[in-house]
Design goal:
GO terms for molecular function: transmembrane transporter activity. This is Major Facilitator Superfamily protein. InterPro entries: MFS (IPR011701), MFS_dom (IPR020846), MFS_trans_sf (IPR036259). 74% of the residues lie in helices and 0% in strands. It is an all-alpha fold. The protein has 2 domains: 429 residues, Up-down Bundle (Growth Hormone, Chain: A); 51 residues. α2 runs antiparallel to α9, α11 crosses α16 and α12 runs parallel beside α15. The protein starts with 11 loop residues before the first helix and ends in a 13-residue tail after the last helix.
Length: 493
């Protein structure tokens, strides 16, 4: 375990480490922001109705790369893999800036998926190097602290996009990512935790191929028809690959993602709720961008340019930052279940209000703040919940489990509701009408309700077991380093 100092309090070195990790994640937030923000421009630039893949390709890649990089970091060091992730993300940003075709553009976006890996590695670095007294808050800051500077990103990307197009924005991002990689190598110490083991590359291929095939089938189904041989083939292949991945993961001694811990209903239900919340957050931002850029000629929207929309986006990411601090501290007094239930209600109200906000800019801005708070709070509490029970040499892999679920659901929500809305309520020249916006908003509301049911189920299981943290799932968990049982939340909060 890394030892920065013998003190249990915050020190200058610990502050610098957290700030450095936050800086590396600002680049990740920038790519997440730029997905929905650039979507209308990308649709027009490449004359496509499959622009949602500009958002999905990055998230899909990160869903596979998060557990892969996390496992590699357990074996070869977290700082080293974080630097590699930044290098790949920087090259991907450069490719997006110069890509002459939509296909190459998507390749660049997929390479940017490695930037999201920095969130997993940053949380693991903090958890294993900081004392238990401050570790939960430090982890919360490490995973959502980028929300505060990230809230300012739209004020940079907005004017850049207005003056130099999306190409200028992604070129600038490539430079920033390169600088972040250099600083990370200079400041963050390497993890000494590394054990012998193998990397499940077969599992990575099966998982990535399954999700990509299913999403491609759903995306094309709304436009070319659900009975199209291509659509049917993609969905069947995706299901078969998914079953193959599950069988592989349950039989391997050291799988890419140890899905055996999902046998604990508390973990499974919270994981499902967390994935649904993450997906809703992505859909919320996509709806937001579409409403913001729509003009009065469509009967709704505000006709904002990228610079003006930055003021709205910053509210969401400021709320995301606050969500990484306040809810995590609230868990000290209350349980994970209570805090996450409250956050679910907040997001439900925000999603419902989105239906009413398509003509009211003040309300439109206010619900971005509340939605960001809910999504950020759920994200930070989930990471702490999982890391609280993970063995030191499985910190990154455990965090990657949730990140994989979250990014997979974000991929689904960046594709499925948009494709369905396109098919059910086709707009003019590929644009969305008010009916399509309402459909996606209702989709978000139903999803949050489902997340609420999962959270309630997790709370009931927790009450029955009379303990909130993760419990041991199968014999030999201590020796395998999968999950360790803690007696009470006070042991790690």
């Amino acid at each position: 375990m890394l030892q920065t100092t013998h003190s249990d309090e915050w020190t200058l070195r610990r502050v610098v480490i957290v700030l450095t990790l936050i800086a590396s994640q600002v680049a990740s937030i920038a790519t997440i922001i730029l997905g929905p923000q650039s979507l209308p421009v990308i649709d027009r630039e490449f004359d496509t109705n499959q622009g949602s893949w500009f958002v999905t390709s990055e998230l899909l890649a990160s869903a596979v790369l998060c557990p892969l990089f996390a496992r590699l970091s357990d074996l070869y060091g977290k700082r080293r893999l974080a630097a590699i992730a930044l290098l790949s993300g920087g090259l991907g940003s450069l490719l997006v800036a110069v890509a002459p075709t939509f296909s190459l553009l998507l390749v660049g976006r997929a390479m940017q998926g490695t930037l999201i890996v920095c969130c997993v590695l940053g949380a693991a670095i903090v958890r294993e190097s900081f004392p238990a007294k401050i570790a939960p808050v430090a982890v919360g800051l490490a995973v959502t602290g980028a929300g505060l500077p990230g809230s300012l990103v739209p004020f940079v990307t907005g004017p850049l996009m207005d003056s130099h197009g999306y190409q200028g924005v992604f070129l600038a991002l490539a430079v920033v990512v390169a600088a972040a990689g250099v600083v990370l190598l200079l400041v963050v110490p390497e993890s000494p935790v590394a054990k012998e083991g193998s990397v499940d590359f077969v599992g990575a291929f099966l998982l990535g191929s399954a999700v990509a095939s299913l999403l491609a089938g759903v995306s094309l189904g709304a436009t070319v028809g659900w009975t199209s041989p291509l659509v049917v083939a993609l969905i069947v292949v995706g299901v078969c690959l998914g079953v193959g991945w599950i069988l592989s993961a349950t039989k391997k001694a050291d799988p890419l993602i140890d899905i055996r811990i999902l046998a604990d209903r508390r973990v499974a239900n919270r994981m499902a709720a967390g994935g649904l919340i993450a997906g809703t957050g992505t859909l919320f931002l996509i709806i937001s961008a579409l409403v913001a850029e729509s003009g009065s000629e469509r009967g709704f929207g505000f006709g904002l340019n990228a610079t003006q929309y930055a003021f709205v986006q910053c509210l969401f990411f400021f709320g995301f930052f606050v969500g990484g601090v306040v809810p995590v501290r609230a868990v000290r007094r209350y349980s994970f279940g209570i805090v996450q239930s409250i956050l679910t209600v907040v997001l439900l109200i925000s999603s419902a209000a989105l239906l009413l906000a398509v003509g009211s800019l003040p309300l439109f801005g206010a619900i971005h703040l509340s939605a960001g708070l809910a999504v950020g709070g759920f994200f930070a509490t989930m990471i702490n919940f999982l890391l609280s029970g993970a063995a030191p040499d499985r910190q990154a892999s455990t965090a990657a489990l949730y990140m994989t679920v979250a990014t997979m659901m974000q991929s689904v929500f960046a594709t499925v509701p948009i494709s369905l809305a396109n098919g059910l309520f086709p707009g003019v020249e590929g644009s969305f009408g008010l009916d399509g916006i309402r459909f996606m908003s209702v989709f978000a509301i139903v999803t949050v309700l489902a997340a609420g049911l999962c959270t309630a189920a997790a709370r009931r299981a927790t009450i029955r077991d009379a303990v909130d943290p993760l419990k041991q799932v199968h014999s030999g968990a201590d020796s395998e380093g999968i999950v360790l049982l803690r007696d009470s939340p006070a042991d790690y909060l």
